[in-house]
Description:
By secondary structure, this protein is α/β, with parallel strands linked by helices. The chain contains 21 helices and 20 strands. The protein folds into three domains: about 180 residues, Rossmann fold (3-Layer(aba) Sandwich), CATH 3.40.50.280; about 250 residues, tm_1862 like domain (pyruvate-formate lyase- activating enzyme, Alpha-Beta Horseshoe), CATH 3.80.30.20; about 60 residues. A seven-stranded mixed beta sheet has the order 1-7-6-5-2-4-19, sandwiched between helices. Strand 17, helix 14 and strand 18 form a beta-alpha-beta unit. The longest helix has 26 residues. The radius of gyration is 24 Å and the shape is globular. The C terminus is likely disordered. Cobalamin (B12) binds next to helix 2, helix 3, strand 5, strand 6 and helix 7.
Amino acid sequence: MKTCNVFDPASLEGQEIHPLGSDAKVLLTGIFGPFALDDEYGSRKINPAEFHHNQITRVQGPFSLRMFHRNGGLKLIQANINAPCTLLEYPDLDRFTLELQNKQYDIIGISAIQPNLKKVEKMCALIREHQPNTTIVIGGHIAIIADLDARIDADYVVRGDGVRWFRKFLGEDQDGPINHPHIPSGINRRCMGINLSNSNGDRTAVLMPSAGCPVGCNFCSTSAMFGGKGKFVSFYKTGDELFDIMCQLEEQMGVCSFFVMDENFLFYRTRTLRLLELMQTHEKDWALHIFASADVLTSYTIEQLVGLGISWVWIGLEGKSNHYKKLKGIDTHALVRKLQANGIRILGSTIIGLEEHTPQNIDEEIEWSVSHATEFHQFMLYTAPQGTPLYEQLKKKGMLLDESEIEPADVHGQFRFNYHHPHIDPGQENDFLLRAFRRDFEMNGPSVMRVARTVMNGWVKYRHHPEARIRKRYARDIEKMPTMYAGSLWATRRWFKDNSRIVARMTNTLDAIYHEFGFRSRIAAPVVGLAVLFFLRKEEKRLATNYPYEPPTFYETAVMAFRPRDKTMLPSKADLSPATPAP
Length: 583
Ligand code: B12
Ligand code: SF4
């Protein structure tokens, strides 16, 4: 088996080419389900294939946001190779086997992450059994496991960008423009027992401008995967290129909002500011949901963020006693308040189990995080995925657990540390983690309801903004406020009638809605609210039966993607240089 580090030019150069080139028949597949149960292949009941429910709203019962996501990496590869390519996503074992029995492939690519090791092992064995002449390629975050070649029977392991690798392997142009796949964000969305609509107003497209993150925090596998500190892959280097793709997604998918799958979108300052310019010139009322580190975020003015349509930010708060440079000198409480006052919703992320955490100070640490009152809050154990600087450091110190002590399937950040913590005994970490989730829920209420307050702030502040596109965006945000939101807040208040803090919060937001929308919202609140209560109770019963939410299977032979248009959108001279990182 050969391993290729795509971010290392010499390694990629040494990669051989498949004899059939672009005539090779390719199958790209994700790992098999079902996911929401404990099984011998590493599925875990506490680790279903839903990242909001998994690591953000997991204790919020019927208020938890349930949804699935497509595999962006595989979709991107499929959209950017000329070889005939089939995509199979979220199959079960029978469906995967059936595919191998019925259709012959020259290359089968499997995308996986580290906890999926046993599933990949099984899939490789099945491929060898049914299609012994097929070339097996493994990519995604699992590829960084050091001795992967000794554990599974595959031909190639690919670390880093799969588009570049596949183009090389198929003898295609590695530097050709990147087509962007058609990916709706959030599949089978559901909350409070209600299936959330995918009407035009709230449809969101996934946008993938870059991968990796040059900041290189010690625990970060996304950064490590694409070369680590200082390295990243840019699929669209200029604001013009990105704008063109966004226009196409808007036109073809009927969306006006984008889930930007880029670990530190604002980092690429030249690109971002050019995008802002284009959005202003072309009066785009887009909403952007982004990931950003605190230092980069604070290097923009609030006017720039609002102008860019930033309406959600996923930001690493990490912890009160963190030492990360990206947070140095930043008052995160003030930052969160400021963003919320401008209608920007926050998904804060906290690490449980930093080196400094002890059973004595953990509650204080949790309190610090919870007091940010972000709309959503992710809590993750301080985990050391293979390939990260943290993993190497713990390995040197002999602190890592071996596989007789923890299975790879359990190293997902929501159960146990994969090393000996200096102050926290084994088993305690799960208790601390759950304590954090519960405290956040108890103090701040259901995440989906917290959103209403911030949306109202934004509307009140910007409804008279001189730019029509900005007024329009904030107006879109409050469309459902007098009816659906008023009713849901009303129902939530009833649901938590014994928690005076949540009752006060719901009342506060409801009063703001009544004040703003008057009679209509006062009538709608109890009417819609009673229906919502009915669905909440029904969902609670359903969850009590351990109802498993599983993603649907996707099987796609035709590619839906958008080709960059060079003629209609000529980038300006300044933007022809590579993306410039923020200082
Ligand atoms: C969307 C997402 C999900 C979605 C969908 C995942 C999917 N099927 O793609 C869902 C919700 C299912 C999910 C779940 C989880 N996820 Co997730 N997820 C992500 C996220 C945010 C984005 C992935 C993405 O689209 N990236 C953009 C594309 C362009 O990059 P990419 O996927 O890496 O693909 C590129 C390369 O990796 C490569 N490539 C990918 N596949 C293949 C295949 C082949 C054959 C080749 C050659 C190349 C190749 O080429 C692609 C193009 O350059 C990443 C973080 C991130 N920013 O990447 C975490 C991430 C992948 N998830 C992670 C984790 C830990 C989880 C969970 C365990 C979380 C949890 N605790 O609940 C669960 C697992 C659930 C389960 N039961 O398996 C970790 C993986 C860590 C690791 N070292 O393995 C990541 C890196 C987040 C993090 N930093 O911790 N996740
Ligand atoms: S800033 Fe965020 S994405 Fe970037 S390396 Fe650090 S944790 Fe990873």
